[in-house]
């Protein structure tokens, strides 16, 4: 670099440093989401029905799975993806102002629930290779051990369950 001899150049971060920095930022954002909205493992958390709430729900889910339940990064990754899909469906298809997120753990299982005021049940549709939408429930079906929807007097709860190893 002509003319910059003797000027210290910024060092590039190594891959491991970047991963640690990213993990620290994600953990901080997860803790902020828990502080703002509450812990979905302690009771239902209500979030505004907006596309941006999917990222909040993902942060909450990741924090619960890793920080509070101490489960594997792979379980966290699958949980976060499936939460995003259920939240996306609640936001896109229900016309609700808010939705609820709740996470439960019992011996050998985790369960994630998304409650919304619509009584319209989710429908697993065939997925084709070139489809650009409509894959959410397909992913839920493939990555979870069980999933379903329970009708409520006012709305429904769409849920999934995954087996987990207890320590």
From TrEMBL:
Concerning InterPro entries, the annotation shows:
Anti-sigma-factor_SerPK, HATPase_C_sf, HATPase_dom
List, for all copies, the residue spans of the domain called Histidine kinase/HSP90-like ATPase. Answer: 48-158
* Residues spanning the membrane: none
Classification via SUPFAM superfamilies: ATPase domain of HSP90 chaperone/DNA topoisomerase II/histidine kinase
Supply the alphabetized keyword list. Kinase, Serine/threonine-protein kinase, Transferase
Recorded superkingdom: Bacteria
- Record PANTHER family: ANTI-SIGMA-F FACTOR RSBW (PTHR35526:SF3), ANTI-SIGMA-F FACTOR RSBW-RELATED (PTHR35526)
Q: What is this protein called?
A: Histidine kinase-, DNA gyrase B-, and HSP90-like ATPase
